[in-house]
Amino acid sequence: MASVIALCTIAAGQASAALEASVTVSSSTVGSGDWITVERVVSNSGTTTLTGVSATLQMPDYIVPVPESTNLDCSFSCDPGEVALWIIGDLEPGQSTTAYFSMQFTGG
User: Fold this and answer.
1) Of 4, 45, 98, 103, which residue is 20 to 30 A from 36 by alpha carbon distance?
2) Looking at the 3D structure of the chain, how many domains does it have?
């Protein structure tokens, strides 16, 4: 069994401590061939609208995303090691947005 680790960064048009992100997976350990679902949530916990919000997710080694299952901007297959971009746009105060996608663990 292997541990699933995903690297996530977020950015806004202006710096803000109110911008929060989380990445959770349906299983923290997987075996070769297992499928997992990844949930990414980006939130604005502040009192002003955040503009130009985007998030990136570096695809871990030995993980192959299902391209149709995601709204991330990357190559057709979102190759391992590739950095996928999620363009969110504006987030109102208290607003959050969520993306889900499926991945298969290919071994490692």
Assistant:
1) 45
2) 1
- Pull the structure tokens for residue 108: 């490692």
Mean pLDDT by 10 residues, the chain (108 residues): 51 74 82 84 92 80 65 59 80 91 76
Residue 62 maps to which CATH number? 2.60.40.290
Secondary structure string (H, E, C) spanning the chain: CEECCCEEEEECCCCCCCEEEEEEECCCEECCCCEEEEEEEEEECCCCCEEEEEEEEECCCCEEECHHHCCCECCCCCCCCCEEEEEEEEECCCCEEEEEEEEEECCC
Residue 44: per-residue pLDDT: 94
Parent domain of 77: 2-105
